[in-house]
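Q: Got a minute? One more chain.
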Amino acid sequence: MTTALALPERRTLHVVQAGTNHGARGNLPHLRRLQEESAIIDVEIIGVDPLPNRARTYAADAERAGLRTTPREAKIEEFIDDLPDGAPVLLNMDNPGAHAAALRQLADRDVAVLGGYFAASPADGQLFGFRYACSGQEHDAKREVAQFCEHLATFAGRGGRDRVWGERGRPEHLPLETVYRQWTGAFVRETLDKLAIGVPLNYHHLEVTRDGRETLPIITRQSTTHDASPFALATEVLGNPPVAILRGDAFVVAELRGDGVRLHFARLGKTDGRVRVNGYAGFDRETLDAAERAERERQLQHEQSLQRADLARQQREVTEALRRADQQTITRRRPLFFTD
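A: Always. Here it is, folded:
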């Protein structure tokens, strides 16, 4: 007598994609790979976007990638009450304030939420990638990520992708877009896979990268006085870290200030176990003011250098003109010679 193994039935994983522009389209290869590598999961996307025709364009792209997709022309806030049971929500908007608003509305619901966005720091030109993932029951984590996004949005400028990856961004950033999008896309695929089969996530709920390769957990701390020592903040975090931090591990303390946020980069010593803070990136008024002053001084020095160079050029031209004029003057020291 032989007993045949019963193959598990395929089931549909509904995914709500909020925001259907560049970030969402970047996720499509990873969602397709999730479906192709699974013997039981069929991915079905609901693309939600308030801009006319954008959701339909995204749905057409998804269908060409072999993914069933239903477009919905709406804001994600308007669609939350109609979410399919158990459907995770992917947030891909280009403003952290929009992420914060959606996270606030999802915080008390048993809905898993994932998201990501990129930022170019006006202070030092550094390129950042942020990503987050919260399971349906991690209500406090959703609120924490929302609070971080709200503080980060304080100085969010207009321009979106064009300022980060486009013609108005820094030339050195352009080749890195593929690397950073791979960092967020692989995260989406692996996280959805675990959510689909009910396996706990092995990511911290909020993370950052500065090169598209190394991933650092972000641990938030509220600051009211703006004079907290970065070393004290890092030491406080290590007293009761929300994520495992071992010797040699790097992490980020996000100091949430009334005027923005500062990211303090720290590492736990591999040999001595001592914490070291290795600089910060500031998205706050004080840092941005200092950066603007430094930029103005740099521009002034550049203009003065150009003026000095132009003055030196003019002086050289006058000297050369006088020399040539002197050479061409007919005098007894420089007579004309004739012949027949």
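A: DSSP finds nine helices and eleven strands in the chain.
Q: Perfect, thanks.
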